[in-house]
């Protein structure tokens, strides 16, 4: 149940008021939107308040290589991952993405590293903790389950950072929207972060909601149609600014030159304003994809002998991408028809002949691509599709939600609720949501008045206040999947097979064991 200590609440309110002016002062008018301005300001205010209440005095600074080469090769669980910068190597001393702009030793590179597909894998979080529990990744504000956690002993540190270690999750603190159509009537929170008014909710309609999400990759962003899982950031400039003030707990905002440096490394996205990206060089950014596959033993080259994998091919695709390029709901500005044949990366593998293990794996990858492209799925109960179209069942496929050609995210901003955040009786099949808080939301206004939701994450509803957005998040870019387990926004799928099993059970697809194996083989090579 929610804790109500009004004396504490009044003290916290005064502190939040004192830092909210800081937040408003650092957010320039051209990076705020009607939907996201208040949540972003509240997120920054919460970070600054927690810095004052629970100062983090431990830890070292981020170690950073002198340069990120034009082509970087990294081992991952499926073979070799490659990253490519069309405009050449990046000298890290000259780019703010790799510089400490905050107060806790972090840089953007702390949570976005090449071996993890420029995201963060739970495996590498564990390795970094074992090597140095004071690594800048492990900070109280968002690396721990709550800023108030005890980290005075190794055992306490292990407990505090359990979600980061087990599922690669970072805590996000967002305010309950002032226009919310719902009340948060109950929270089952094993960490007492949401139920403590100092760090969390102060009533059913006010305070901070702590949710736990995977860091999204900072690569292939030329194809990004919306920024952050809940779409709360209007562009990468705003995202870099807010990340400095929250995750790095910066005492001051980055300069425009520093923001430009970070965005140049990432590559300006299509979710941008022309003025802000005017100084970003053509072809800037970094692109990442699997380069070779050795998951079954022999090494399969994904960039030759019929394969068109790897990051160079993706970088070449970027020039042709535009918002709505293959949107299934009629938003393609060219009027071109939608196609479920999303991927053709490994068409050539289907024609490989011979009885060797390399050919066998090539054929499995090609079969998996065909499963992705061709399997019919009866889409039901997906908020953002069935309700938006007023159709209880929509005939579709994997590409209905993963429609960007050879990339696999949605080509327009389309947050969807496929059930990953569900809890209680509707908890998703094949997924592990243990350790996550469960929120009970009751709709008190709007067309869903009276409905009750149990979720581990309210999703985009924390940005818009709309009950219709409860549980909605975006679908991420699929390239580089093998490097960044676990999967989904809440890390509920430990493996790609868990992902496949979830979809199979959720939509009653009826995959055979062979189809599942082939589909995993394909996804591992993206």
Describe, in short, the structure shown:
By secondary structure, this protein is an alpha+beta fold. The protein is built from 15 helices and 14 strands.
Describe this structure in words.
This protein is α+β, with helices and mostly antiparallel strands and 526 residues long. It has a domain at 6-175 and 211-277. It is built from 15 helices and 14 strands. It has helices spanning 6-26, 37-53, 122-131, 154-160, 162-167, 236-245, 256-266, 274-277, 311-318, 357-374, 386-389, 398-401, 461-464, 496-506, 513-524; strands at residues 67-68, 71-76, 79-84, 90-91, 170-175, 182-188, 201-203, 206-213, 287-293, 300-301, 377-380, 393-396, 438-443, 452-455. The strands form five sheets. Strands 2-3-9-10 form a four-stranded antiparallel beta sheet. A three-stranded antiparallel beta sheet has the order 5-8-7. Helix 14 (496-506) packs across helix 15 (513-524). It is globular. Residues 1-34 have low confidence and may be disordered.
